[in-house]
Design a protein that fits this description.
alpha+beta; two-stranded antiparallel ribbon; 1 helix
Length: about 55
């Protein structure tokens, strides 16, 4: 983050507010399914959850 903030300040000036990031963990139910069309080669996981979008 310090390198990214340094580059942003260098480009846009000292009035740029520092970017901050964090890692959080949430607990809840999640539904994960494989979706795709037979024979199309598309076979991706689809996550249907509220856990990953929960904020404090």
């Amino acid at each position: 983050m310090s390198v990214l903030n340094f580059k942003f300040i260098k480009r846009w000036g000292v009035n740029f507010k520092d970017i901050q990031a964090g890692i959080g963990v949430a607990l809840g139910r999640a539904l994960v399914i494989k979706a795709g069309f037979s024979g199309s080669g598309i076979n991706d996981l689809i996550y249907m959850v509220d856990v990953v979008n929960r904020g404090i």
